[in-house]
Amino acid sequence: MNICTTGNQLLRNFRFCLNNSHLQSSSFRGLKKAPINPSTYKIVQQNLDSTTSYLFNRCTAGLGATARFYSLDKEQAQDSKSVSGEQTSSNTDNPILSETQSTPQLSYGQPQKGAGRYLDPLAEDAESYSQGERQREQFYDHLKNCNSPCDVLDLAGNYTLTWRRVSNCFTKIWETTKKMSDDQKHYERKLMFEHPVFEQLCQQAMKDAQKMRNDDLAYSLMALVKLGVSQRSRVVQTLMRVIQEHLNDFDEKSLSVLANCLNDMDSDKNADALKAGLRLLVETRIPKIKNVVALQTMMRCIGKDAPVSLKRKLEHKALSMLSQFSLPNSQYMFTTLAAMDFNSSTLLDACSSKIIENIHGIPFWRLIYVLQSSRDLQYRNAALFSAIAEYVLSTLDMWSNKQIVLFLGLFGDLGLRHAGLMDAFAEKVTETSESLTLRDVINIL
Model-level pTM? Predict the structure, then answer.
């Protein structure tokens, strides 16, 4: 028999076990260990060889199977192939060896012909993961195309409600209602509250509130408050309690969203606790602020009811970072101080100078916000107001009548009477008086 090294080792171990069992059994019977005669040992060895050969051939012949010995060592596999190739002619009479030589070696991780469908657990995991990714992408693609709260709720009813999908559904519902008229908002909200999936979203939000990320918690709470869900409802109170637990981990963006939401909420136990925690958090983070945008976000977070000492600390921090202010930062500082209800003349004068220098690069609504904030803060800067009026006069043709009326109304509130702008607008109105509405005429008068 021409077999590999593993087969020889197996037979040797089998013979050794038989010899040891023969000797041990004789010792257990109380027999003395007599020296073995060499002739006797030779006879026993021949009997063992014949018995082993008989058992091996008998078993393989009865089962009709082939005896194959495979080795994982590449060098041994190559040696066995070379030896079998040289002795092909001499082993053709032995059916076992001929079948063994014609059988290819096994290769791990590859399916064999006739072995059925090959199952790879890693491939199954990858397949299930790809299916989950496709469903997730499909859900968010459909969510982008929703144009009403009922569209979002119908879509959510066809998918498994995870905490991430719940948060995105609330935010999308709020976004779809922002641009609607008041009558349409009232009608859509009524349909939303009557929709059965909306209750499921609220239930899932309460269940998975602890799993949500900080920004998802903030956006979900703001969406529910903006949509008119009662502040005393269980879902709103649950989100507020979870936010209190994770407030220390909130970043600037999440704090800004939370502050915007708290401004629209009534005073109650949880809302007041959140406002107090928000102010303490802002005060502890002031020395670590290195970005102007982050600073302005913190200033908006504390709100109008913050103590004056905290507002002074934020003012000093902003004055120390004036060299980093860009044009958008200067414009945004007006609305930030208005949100704090804090008139810092030194800070506003510095921002006004930067706005005057770059007045031609500021869009319409930014100028309106600057004027509105100055009115709310009772800030008077004649140089700033005159610069804006001159800019509007020089670009009069690019503004509509309603835009100019809005400028003139804010100038009137701020005590500015720019004769050149008023005369130019009077000529324009005289030429196109038919386009004015009654409200426009009243504002002009």
Answer: 0.61
